[in-house]
């Protein structure tokens, strides 16, 4: 039945599956590409005459699958790119709410962008967790549309081409697997469901373990505001990555923008001074990690800000704008200076 369905509706199925995956639905399209490639090859050889086989295999159907998948990927990716450009960190926050690794998903994407820039789009579809998030990150960090389109199209062609080629090369094995699936269909489905449940359980446990490790007292925004009006005020530290600051170029007034050389920035600060770290990530993960590291370096009074920058903004408190300097060569923008400095 599956074979007949793909033979009859192969291209529409590929288009729909790829588009839905690129829009963020958990419907992996790579198996569909491989399966469609394998069934296309098998069907072509089965219907070919001896003379046709002697003259070589017709590549047209396989090329059509690759082109269809690439077009679908570009449509979905372009939508996320413009949403990232228009709404920035709000789009990333929404996508992370749909992720099991919601506390670290954006940071991972920013790590890749910080190291490779827009070029990461050429291979991002092969990296779990990065394939969807990389696109709005590209839009939010100011990547030019031309650069995005070039590398995303290259990545879509590479990804779909490898998927289809894998299925075509191993068409015989896929045929045997489909025959086996026809015999033991329910058992295979049960195994797949159990494997998926185990995977989700492991990822959930990893997140719970991370949050337990970072469990510590937080300070809320009302308390921070009161402390800032007192003497001596606490030192507020913005621990967001420069790419996150570029997407949301505002900071709590007077905050120290932590950079790569954090040791030199904190060298002259008394170890008993009150420090408050903040970020804009779920569960204050980055702020808590920074607080733990500061405590390990001898600071005795450190607390993450509950709710981070979003809570401060939601309360209507003042924010300092940051001057953003566009990075060269399509890399993510960098922070130049704070207007309050």
UniProtKB/TrEMBL annotation:
What organism is recorded for this protein? Caballeronia glebae
Q: Which Pfam families match?
A: Rhodanese, VTT_dom
- Record localization: Cell membrane
Topology term for the membrane: Multi-pass membrane protein
Keyword Ribosomal protein listed? The answer is no
Q: Where is the Rhodanese domain?
A: 230-321
Q: What protein name is recorded for this chain?
A: DedA family transmembrane protein
What keywords are assigned to this protein? Cell membrane, Membrane, Transmembrane, Transmembrane helix
Looking up PROSITE patterns in the UniProt record yields: RHODANESE_3 (PS50206)
The UniProt entry's GO CC annotations, sorted and at most eight, read: plasma membrane
InterPro entries with a match to the protein in the record: DedA_domain (IPR051311), Rhodanese-like_dom (IPR001763), Rhodanese-like_dom_sf (IPR036873), VTT_dom (IPR032816)
- Membrane-spanning parts: 7-27, 62-83, 116-137, 149-171, 183-205
């Amino acid at each position: 039945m599956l074979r007949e369905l793909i033979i009859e509706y192969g291209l529409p199925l590929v288009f729909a599956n790829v588009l839905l995956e690129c829009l963020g639905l958990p419907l992996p399209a790579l198996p569909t590409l491989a399966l469609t490639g394998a069934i296309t090859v098998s069907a072509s050889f089965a219907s070919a005459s001896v003379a046709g086989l002697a003259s070589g295999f017709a590549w047209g159907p396989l090329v059509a699958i690759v082109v269809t998948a690439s077009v679908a990927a570009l449509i979905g990716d372009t939508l996320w790119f413009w949403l990232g450009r228009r709404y920035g960190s709000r789009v990333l926050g929404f996508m992370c709410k749909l992720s099991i690794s919601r506390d670290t998903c954006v940071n991972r994407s920013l790590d890749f962008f910080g190291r490779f820039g827009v070029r990461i789009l050429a291979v991002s579809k092969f990296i779990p967790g990065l394939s969807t998030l990389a696109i709005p990150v590209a839009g939010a960090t100011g990547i030019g549309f031309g650069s995005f389109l070039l590398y995303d199209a290259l990545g879509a062609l590479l990804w779909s081409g490898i998927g289809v080629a894998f299925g075509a090369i191993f068409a015989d094995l896929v045929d045997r697997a489909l025959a086996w699936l026809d015999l033991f269909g329910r058992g295979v489905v049960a195994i797949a469901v159990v494997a998926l449940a185990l995977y989700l359980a492991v990822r959930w446990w990893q997140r719970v373990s991370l949050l337990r490790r970072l469990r510590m007292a937080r300070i809320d925004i009302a308390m921070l505001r009161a402390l800032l009006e007192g003497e001596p005020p606490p030192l507020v530290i913005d621990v967001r990555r420069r790419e996150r600051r570029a997407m949301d170029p505002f900071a709590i007034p007077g905050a120290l923008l932590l950079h790569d050389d954090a040791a030199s920035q904190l060298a002259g600060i008394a170890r008993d001074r009150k420090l408050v770290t903040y970020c804009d990530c779920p569960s204050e993960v980055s702020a808590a990690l920074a607080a733990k590291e500061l405590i390990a370096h001898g600071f005795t009074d450190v607390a993450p800000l509950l709710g981070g920058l979003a809570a401060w903004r939601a309360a209507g408190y003042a924010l300092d704008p940051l001057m953003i300097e566009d990075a060269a060569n399509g890399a993510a923008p960098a922070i130049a200076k704070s207007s309050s400095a």
